[in-house]
Amino acid sequence: MSTGRFTLDPSIKALLKDLGVSSTRVLRRAQLPADLFGRGPVALPLEEYFRLWEALEAESGDPDLAVAIGRSISVEMFNPPIFAALCSPDLRTAAERIAIHKPLIGPLHLRLDNGDEGLTISFRWPPDTPPPPPQLAAAEMVFWVALARIATRHDVRPVRAVDPWLPAEHAGLDDYLGVEVHKGRTHAITFAPADGSRPFLTENEQLWRFFAPELRRRLSDLQATASVAERVRAALHETLPAGGSSMTAVTRHLAVSNRTLQRQLQLEGTSFQEILATTRENLARHYLGNSTMRIAEIAYLLGYDDTNSFYRAFRTWTGTTPDALRTAAVAGV
């Protein structure tokens, strides 16, 4: 759960220099303060975070910017959460640790699945906001491959990669990853079972124990600054796809009682049902405008037992139907 502000690590200055991109021009194009990179770690709202990436894409002029970033990544550029993950015994454990602390360093949540195919890392971007810049989305996949290769000193290649916002030119991305990236509804990368458990040569349990308490403190501080409504909204993003639309599902996720949550939300001038409705509406609009999912699939992801219930709720929110809104979105109305 995050407050919508994300840490911009000081190492970005070194990255821009390695990429041959002017930090001054990037900041000017992004309409951000000229001294931003000299302030140490700063937290940017999502809109400014995306704007910075859009400016970086424009200033670099490189269709393979994500790949260039991957090739420039070094241990020295890793911020504490990522460097701590490098101390893990393998990629699977590193992913588990990063998933917990990802809100400290980026505007998305990670979902991990261990199946017969291997370790799948899915990227879940904020659903009620515009899609991320294409190169930012691609860079997330590139990062995992770079991390695995640095830590194992092995040419790790994923077995599958899917990107809803795939850049128009992605031959360089395919070549770097070692697998053809396909466009689809989800944003995910899958590693073979052997690569998920391949030993990290950088494993250092003692160093991890040094980092872990500070990371927990920072995450706790971040969550403490979020309003209760924001925490409920974030919890719903996690519970709805599993059918958890009840207050009990959310209170279990937040480790509070129903009565306490109701009281806290009342003090903030809202209610659980109001947040549930607005969250579902925002998610529905996102899925309809940015995916090809069937209406029945969207209803399921929003925690509805049947499609008719979703249609009735959607008409209450918007005065129209999901099909009509999707048609209007496609037509650019």
What does this structure look like?
The chain is an alpha+beta fold and 333 residues long. It has helices at residues 12-19, 23-29, 46-60, 65-72, 80-86, 91-101, 134-152, 171-177, 193-196, 205-224, 228-239, 247-254, 258-267, 272-290, 295-301, 307-318, 322-331, and strands spanning 5-8, 42-45, 109-115, 118-124, 160-162, 188-191.
Strand residue content:
5-15%
Tell me, briefly, the overall form.
globular
Q: What is the succession of H and E elements?
A: EHHEHHHHEEHEHEHHHHHHHHH
Biggest pleated-sheet summary: 4 strands, antiparallel
Category from helices, strands and their pairing = alpha+beta
Distance between the termini: 33 Å
Number of helices: 17
Weakly predicted, low-confidence segments:
none
Number of strands: 6
Question: Strand order within the widest sheet?
Answer: 3-4-6-5
Average pLDDT confidence is 85
Oligomer: single chain
Report the C-alpha radius of gyration, rounded. 21 Å
Question: What is the share of helical residues?
Answer: 55-70%
